[in-house]
Design goal:
Strand content: over 45%
Order of helices and strands: EEEEEEEEEEE
Number of strands: 11
């Protein structure tokens, strides 16, 4: 069984920074794309950023210039560095990963989410 566990959320003031982490644990054959989604009450789930196996990245327009996604393949971990945070960034942030397990099946896995709240 593969699990994704996020950490690093919290409460910050406008203009502050947070660094989210998501670690994949368990047996897996390989990990492909990894990314971050966010969802605030009343809003649709939004793709924030995605990073491929080779390090290529894509960002939502709202995140460009402020957020940076990265990954450490040795640690099976994806990060989201968030700078210049705004109240509109407040949401539950979920990491996601495409994982091929031992059985050979490929599935999208989701973390439990970490809360980000930006005040003022």
């Amino acid at each position: 069984q593969v699990q994704l566990v996020e950490s690093g959320g919290g409460l910050v003031q406008t203009g502050g920074s947070l660094r989210l982490s998501c670690a994949a644990s368990g047996m897996s054959f390989s990990i492909g794309d990894m990314g971050w989604y966010r969802q605030a009450p009343g809003n649709e789930r939004e793709l924030v950023a995605v990073i491929g196996r080779g390090g290529g990245t894509k960002y939502a327009d709202s995140a460009k210039g402020r957020f940076t996604i990265s990954r450490d393949n040795y640690k099976n971990t994806v990060y989201l560095q968030m700078n210049s945070l705004k109240p509109d960034d407040s949401a539950i942030y979920h990491c996601t990963a495409r994982i091929v397990v031992i059985s050979g099946t490929t599935d999208t896995y989701w973390g439990q989410g970490t809360q980000v709240t930006v005040s003022s």
